[in-house]
Amino acid sequence: MMRWRNVLFGFIILLLVVGAVVVNQTGDEETAGQEEQQSTEPIQPDRDVKPQEGFAAPDFELETLAGDTVRLYENNGKPSLINFWASWCPPCKVEMPHLQEAYDQYGDDVNFHMVDLAFNDNFDNMTQYIEENNYTFPVPLDETGDVAMTYQAAAIPTTFIVDAEGIITHRIQGAMTEQQIQAIMDDLTD
Predict the structure, then answer these.
(1) Which helix (H) or strand (E) is 168 found in, with range?
(2) What global pTM score does this model have?
(3) Per residue in 8-61, pLDDT tens?
(4) What is the C-alpha to C-alpha distance for residues 158 and 141, in angstroms, rounded to an integer?
(5) Is 166 left (phi over 0), alpha (psi -120 to 50) or beta?
(6) How far is CA 168 from CA 49, 79, 92, in A?
(7) What's the rounded Cα separation, in Å, for the pair 165 and 16?
(8) Do residues 108 and 188 touch, judged by C-beta distance below 8 A?
(9) Where are the beta strands (DSSP E) in 8-157?
(10) Under the phi-then-psi rule, with left for phi > 0, alpha for psi from -120 to 50, and beta for the rest, what region is 174?
(11) How far apart are CA 175 and CA 188, in angstroms?
C-alpha cells in the first residue's frame, strides 16, 4: 500500500511539473505575440505635442512619391528622421547625398521621411532631381503645406529626429554635414 501511494504521489508531482512547463511556454508565446503586435500599432506619446525638442512630434500622414501612405506614429518601434526640403533649395542639395548614405546604411533601423514641400516645388523638377541622383529614400509629399506649417519649418532644410516613443530629440535648421548625420545615426542606433 505504501509503495502504491509513493508511485501515485510521484505521478501527481510529474503531472504538476509538466503542466507548469506547458503553461509557462504558452504564456511566453502569448507575450511574444503581444510584444510583436505592440510594435506595429501606432505609438501614443505621453507628452504635449509641439514641434520642439523634448515634446511629442506632431503626427502626420502623407502619400509618398511611390504612392505609399506613411504615418509618423506607425513607426514599427523605430526612431524617425523627418527632413523638410525642396528641389530648388541649394542647402538641401548639399545634404542629400549624405542623407542617402545614411538611408543606405540605417534604413532598416530608422524611418526616413524626406518630406518634399510639394505645395511649393515643381513636381517634374523634383522627380527629375530624385531620379538623376538615384535617391531611394521615401519621399512623402506635403501637397498642402499643412505638415510643414505644423512643424514650423519656415526655412529649409529643417530636420527633426524623433525617438521610437515619438519624442523630438533634435531639431536642426540648415544643411547637416556628413559628420552631424553620422553622429545622429550613431545615437539612434546604439
Answers:
(1) strand 168-173
(2) 0.77
(3) 444 455 444 444 444 455 444 444 444 443 356 777 777 788 899 999 999 999
(4) 15
(5) left
(6) 10, 10, 21
(7) 41
(8) no
(9) 61-63, 69-71, 80-85, 111-116
(10) left
(11) 19
